[in-house]
Design brief:
CATH architecture of the largest domain: 3-Layer(aba) Sandwich
Number of domains: 3
Strand order of the largest sheet: 2-8-7-6-5-3-4
Shape: globular
Length: 435
């Protein structure tokens, strides 16, 4: 199995895609690769599998496990863990400067540059959900105002609208998007058709957590601008997966997670509120704030977990060292390889589009009519591959996430595991899952 202990042997042996039997264990390689600086990870040659082994070596993923669920929470690279530990120790020993405001502002500037925004448009939050609530509850709503969103939105994004429906009487207008969709025009057309004179906001996930659909946010932002609406984006997944440019996307609001593809650990998030709409968004907590405060006015939530925020610097620097376009290309390469392999297995249904416009690092699939819990348990028990189930709507499916710490051989291992389950489906239909 791929492991951090196998890293040095893997690189020295010239590991290439599919070139290692996954059940082999490198028992003679007991040295864990040292923690590398961001400078050490800057590519100096081809981005071959030896380079990606170097990246993999920086994650303390449990030996023998193939982890493919960073769409929920990603493993934290050692450089981030060590940074968090350093800051925690400093504050524990001397809490006199426990807020570290100037250092937090340095992180804000670094994150702003990472997503191509201005620092005064960035609030450093504790989750995507908090960022979605900041925007939604910060707006002035009246009974009968409408918000449009699709049937695959996450509870963290639509939760505040559910509250406003009961509390004020706003009206959610829920549209259905095919899985997979046929075209950008089909998606945009469904949102446009749903607009009425009462529409106030279009809320959309940049990447849906259900099928991994990459939504045409720029086209929807242009639609919102033409119709005088606001657009709010649940960006839980793309931060750390895709080469984000928020200015180019022209959105009013974008909430993102730190613990998923950015791999900063829990309690970290980013909320972008475009400067020209900040006077319309009241803070969720604390005083109203002043224009000079920018998006910092949305951070009046009391004592924050300062070490985790400061540790975000190490996560951003790691991705910058690898290169944001290289990260996205790697994610897409691995997920494309996975979908291509799954497509060849009789009885497997792909819910995620094969069109690169509509897909990136998440892949949703079903195996015949086997209960999704049984699929997850069988793959974990038999091959130590961790994926998650997906229960939204009437789906009976499982979801795999592939990121920069995954290797092609792990993708092939999952494909082989799925093939085994599909070929032996009768063994996995009952609640007592066979191994």
């Amino acid at each position: 199995m791929l492991s951090r202990r196998g890293f040095l042997r893997g690189v020295s042996g010239g590991v290439v895609a599919g070139g290692v039997a996954l059940r082999a264990r490198w028992t003679d390689a007991q040295v864990i690769a040292p923690t590398l600086t961001s400078g050490d990870l800057k590519p100096t040659g081809p981005l071959d599998e030896a380079y990606w082994w170097k990246v993999r070596s920086q994650f303390n993923i449990l030996d023998g496990m193939t982890f493919m669920n960073n769409g929920t929470e990603g493993p934290v690279p050692r450089v981030v863990v060590e940074a968090n530990e350093k800051f925690f120790r400093e504050i524990a020993e001397n809490p006199s400067n426990n807020y570290r405001r100037e250092e937090v502002d340095v992180v804000r500037g670094l994150v702003a540059k990472f997503v191509n925004a201005n620092p005064d448009e960035i609030a450093l939050t504790r989750s995507t959900t908090e960022g979605m609530n900041l925007f939604t509850h910060g707006l002035d709503w009246k009974a009968g105002d409408e918000v449009i969103y699709c049937n695959h939105e996450h509870g963290g994004g639509i939760g505040p609208y559910t509250t406003l429906t009961k509390r004020i009487g706003i009206k959610p207008v829920i549209i259905s998007i095919p899985s997979p969709p046929e075209s950008v025009d089909q998606i945009v057309g469904r949102y446009e058709k749903a607009i009425t004179p009462r529409t106030k906001v279009i809320m959309v996930s940049h990447m849906t957590y259900v099928t991994g659909l990459v939504t045409p946010v720029k086209e929807l932002a242009d639609l919102a601008q033409r119709r005088g609406l606001l657009i709010s984006v649940d960006g839980a997944h793309p931060l750390g997966m895709m080469d984000l440019d928020l200015k180019a996307m022209n959105v009013h609001h974008y909430a993102a997670a730190g613990q998923k593809w950015m791999m900063c650990g829990t309690g970290t998030g980013v909320c972008y509120v475009r400067r020209d709409v900040q006077d319309r968004i009241w803070p969720l907590m604390g005083p109203p704030g002043e224009p000079k405060d920018g998006a910092k006015r949305y951070e009046a939530f009391g004592q924050r977990d300062v070490p985790s925020v400061l540790g975000m610097t190490a996560a951003v620097e790691l991705q910058n060292a690898i290169g944001k376009p290289n990260v996205e290309a790697r994610v897409r390469y691995l997920s494309t390889r996975l979908r291509a392999g799954l497509k060849q297995i009789p009885g497997v249904k792909l819910w995620t589009s094969e069109d690169p416009k509509f897909a990136a690092g998440l892949t949703l699939f079903s195996i015949r009519d086997i209960p999704m819990d049984n699929i997850q348990k069988a793959i974990l028990a038999r091959d130590r591959i961790y994926i998650r189930t997906m229960t939204t709507g009437n789906l009976n499916a499982v979801r795999a996430a592939t990121h920069i710490y995954n290797m092609p051989a792990e993708v092939d291992h999952l494909i082989a595991s799925v093939k085994h389950v599909a070929e032996n489906s009768s063994r996995y239909m009952s609640t007592a899952v066979a191994q």
